[in-house]
Amino acid sequence: MAVLSKIRDRSVFLVLIIGMALFAFVVPPKKIMSFFSSKKTNAIGSINGEDITREEFIEEVKAYKSGRSTIDDSQASNAVWENLTSEKIYSSQLKAAGIVVGEKDIWEAIINEPSIKKSPEFLNDAGLFDEELLKGYVADLEEDTSAEGKARFQSWLSFERSVKQSLERNAYLNLVKAGLGVSNIEGKDYYFLNNTKVNGKFVLLPYNSIPDSTISVSDTDVKKYIDAHKNSFQVDASRSLQYVSFDLQASDSDKEAIKKDLTDLIKDSGSYEGLQNTTDYETFVSENSDLPFTDKVVLKNGLNPAIADSLFKLP
Hints:
- By secondary structure, the chain is mainly α.
- It has 15 helices and two strands.
- The radius of gyration is 46 Å and the shape is flat.
- The termini are far apart.
């Protein structure tokens, strides 16, 4: 009974153990391990089903930023992701097309690169490009174990990889171009349109050379023609408008009313302090003026010329 009691107390735990055992029995171990794989959890993205790990991406970003001091992290990350995407997609297509670029092809492309052939480091005493100097330069980079040397060697490997990618993609694009042709029928049509010539003669008979008196057109003929060409005689809807204009100018009565309103602002009215007695000019202007209050000095040439002279003549 004590054993049964303990089993009841741990029933949930036992159910979980049995469930996991059944799950492991049904699901292949390889899939279980891939589910808990640290590489899977460390992936920041996937291209064509191939995961890109965080470490791989960070190394690519560092390599891209080396020698590019004006590039920030965001720009470098975007550029590296675009490069990785392009590289992975091209890789699958190159594999399907059976395109392989060997080390000899890569080296031939490097030594024919203008930036390499014209570099002073690889010119001999006669001023000519020396392949052996380039080989020695690469060997020195590979043997340099300093931090700077490792960085330079990584840059060289990145350069080699870019040359390889360029060769592979050019070969692939050339194959695509070679496969894009035209049919015999399209070729015949093109030749016919560009090489066929026709000689012709024509006679011009102007309408104004025919006297109107020789032509008779009845109302029935006109109606038949209009019925047969209704679309040519469609008339858009139109409107006839009449309007009057009113000038936005104040009448004499309007001017008197405005003058009275302004005059009333000068005197006090109940608890309201008019302009002649108020000391809070900012509040007065804010409540009664369309323009904001300003306590700056205004020069005469900054005022409206129509009132400037009158204002400066006031006491």
